[in-house]
Amino acid sequence: MALYPRYAPEFKVLINGDPLPSALKASVTSISYQDGIEGADRVEVTFANPDLRWLDHPLLQVDNSFKLSIGYSPDPLEEVFVGEITGIEPAFPGNGMPTIKVAAQDLLQRLTHGKVDRAFYVSVPKTANFPLPDVAVAAIVSGTNLLIPYPDPVGGALSILLTVGTYIVAPQLAQKSIRRQESESDFDFLASIAKQNGWEMYIDHTLEPRGYVLRFQFLVQDYSPSLTLKWGQSLTDFTPRLTTVGDVFGVSARIWISAIKMEFVIVVGWDFDRATINLAVYPGVGRLDQLLGEKAAKTISIKPNGFPNSLQAILGELLPRLNNRLTGSGSTIGNPQIKAARVINLEGLGDQFGGLYRITQATHTLDSGGYKTSFQARKEVWFGSIPVPKSPSGLLRLQGQRVG
Question: Is residue 82 part of a domain?
């Protein structure tokens, strides 16, 4: 348990490395920090602007560096955001106080500037061009934007194995897997690669140097909850959404392998009873319903760009569909440790709607009403087979107005 009740929210803003002057900080009326696993994180700070005194202040200008720390006084604050000011929005109402809203985004927004044409490969003399693994492509694009790539060990190893294995078995097929960026922004290009590999792409503000580490996290891992919330105590409210719309048995692809002049059907599906991913390969003879029976009605067929990319394309289509079956949104007292991509344990919601969820977006708000945190989360299909801790040992458990 912490030594102090959670009654005194506090924040610190650094612009160009300097803290806000006391008078400017006292003019802050609200702060909203949105942290997610899709797109750039964002902070909005609204200042009261009496007599337009802050209208042309040098700190409130675009392109200035911006850092935000939040928490509770007198405990140490946690730095949760590093980025740049990307927008200034003054308001001059007919009645009421003029305001200035400052918007900042993390450095992922750098990837949205401009479009590029290029290909990623290594020329092998007297042989052919060797396609770079996706993990290497992600590292190169990150580096050109002055970001530090942090590939997931499992996801990165899989991308290397697929690339090397394909090149060894069928060098002529490997040429089709060369990544080509054609009039795309770096963000759109990397987002596409991340989806095909089952990665989440986001700036991890917990790693040093803060704000510069671009994380590529593989979906099928990281199950340990870092936080336990209980409805009626630390969890203020929670609204789950269970839908069978878009339910699928699996994803299939027909693949022609010219080296052996044969067609195959690859099917990857989820076994809800055993909580496992199943891979099946059939000779490409007959229709899908003849191969899968009644399961064919809930199987999505895709057309990948050749055999080398087939498994990546299948997983990129299957995993998001599986993980959007049960989602939810909730809120609690403000807690800077509620972050996107982390796993939380929800108690007091029954067996079906309680248990482990992965946070997909968190919004921290500090205003006249205090400090509150709202979040969106998803129950990933494999969470059902993972034992949930029954005691608070090793977990951060919120109780009432205190944090331990």
Answer: yes
CA distances from 213 to 62, 132, 161, 205, 210 (A): 22, 21, 24, 7, 7
Phi/psi at 59 (5° precision): -75, -30
Q: Same structural domain for residues 106 and 59?
A: yes
**One domain, residues 97 and 38:** yes
Instruction: Say if CB 129 and CB 179 are below 8 A apart.
Output: no
Determine the pLDDT at residue 88.
97
Residue 2 lies inside a defined structural domain of this protein: no
* 231 secondary structure, DSSP code: B
Q: Which of 110, 130, 159 is the last residue of a domain?
A: 110
Name the residue range of residue 305's domain: 250-317
- The answer to whether the beta carbons of residues 197 and 158 sit under 8 Å apart is yes
Strands (E) across 16-163 are located at 18-19, 28-36, 42-48, 65-72, 78-91, 99-106, 116-123, 129-131, 148-151
C-alpha distances (whole Å) from 264 to each of 2, 167, 255, 258, 397 are 60, 19, 5, 11, 50
Q: Is the dihedral of CA 340, 343, 348, 349 positive or negative?
A: positive
pLDDT score for 389 = 58
Identify whether residues 40 and 168 lie together within a single domain.
no
Give yes or no: residues 199 and 57 share one domain.
no
Do 312 and 192 meet the contact criterion of CB atoms below 8 Å apart?
Answer: no
pLDDT tens digit sequence for 140-194 = 999 999 999 998 876 666 666 666 655 555 555 556 678 899 999 999 999 988 8
Each residue's pLDDT tens digit, 296-350: 777 777 776 555 566 667 777 777 777 888 899 999 999 999 999 899 999 999 9
Global pTM value: 0.82
- Cα 104 to Cα 81: distance, rounded to the nearest angstrom: 9
Same domain, yes or no: 234 and 346: yes
Distance between CA atoms of 162 and 181, rounded to whole angstroms?
20
Contacts of 254 (CB under 8 A, 6+ apart): 263, 264, 265, 284, 301, 303
State the pLDDT at residue 126: 63
Task: Classify residue 167 by its DSSP letter.
Answer: H
Contact 10, 72 (CB under 8 A): yes
Strands laid side by side in the 262-271 sheet: 276-283, 262-271, 250-257, 299-302
Q: Judge whether 14 and 2 are in contact, CB under 8 Å.
A: no
Q: What pLDDT is stored for residue 393 in this prediction?
A: 40
